[in-house]
Amino acid sequence: MLKLPFTHIHPDIDTSELVLVPGGTFMMGSEENDDEKPIHQVTVPTFAIGKFPVTQELWTAVMGNNPAYFIGPKRPVEQVSWEDTQLLFKKINLDSRLKSGQGFRLPTEAEWEYAARGGKDPDQRPAYTYAGGDKLDEVGWYRDNSHGETKPVGLKLHNELELYDMSGNVLEWCEDQWHNSYENAPADGSAWLGLEQGVSRVLRGGYWGNDPRYCRSSFRGNVEPADRDSTIGFRVVLFSPPGSWSGPSQ
């Protein structure tokens, strides 16, 4: 696993739990559902992403409260809306030691799928159905093994980037607004925005009560940005301008 070239960027964030994802080009989407079409080429710049979904421990340390239904410090935080995540990022970015242009945010939908599929050199790896394998029992918590609840992060197998829980456990917010297909989607890995405010935001990854088909790396969902549910969490991305992965200001 590649490590970040810097540490101590925020008092509540362990940089060993951020994974540096080298940029690359991949084919995004699938033929499974209409909203996963057309399969299209996307080039994603380098970014860093949380090894795990944001835990209740981290959320509580930053925000001073715990909205989760399934309580446990190492379980993913849930019952957080897309709008709630923006409040957390605002607070973290104000308190972080970062260079100009760097900051924390949600992953774009392209970043999320690229990371779930294992990142660079997809032609040299098996095309797994789920993040890390074709056997969901080995890589994720879903309807048949979760006993109707979230589980502490990191208990299942990771994918090629050493990312955990990208299939199942909790759905994960993305930055993008919802579109019914990938027709005219950005090809540069950026968030697909530009619609009127209040429209649905993208969810990825499946959750603890889903059938396997909803936990596929290419599956897409959406709800309103103010919605909260015990099925929905998120993970962080640390972004930085191209060529600037050299760490925070001293």
TrEMBL record:
Keywords in alphabetical order: Plasmid
Domain of life: Bacteria
GO molecular function, one term: formylglycine-generating oxidase activity
Keyword Coiled coil listed: no
KW Cell membrane (keyword) present: no
Domain Sulfatase-modifying factor enzyme-like: 16-237
Name of the protein: Sulphatase-modifying factor protein
Origin species: Haliscomenobacter hydrossis (strain ATCC 27775 / DSM 1100 / LMG 10767 / O)
Lineage: Bacteria, Pseudomonadati, Bacteroidota, Saprospiria, Saprospirales
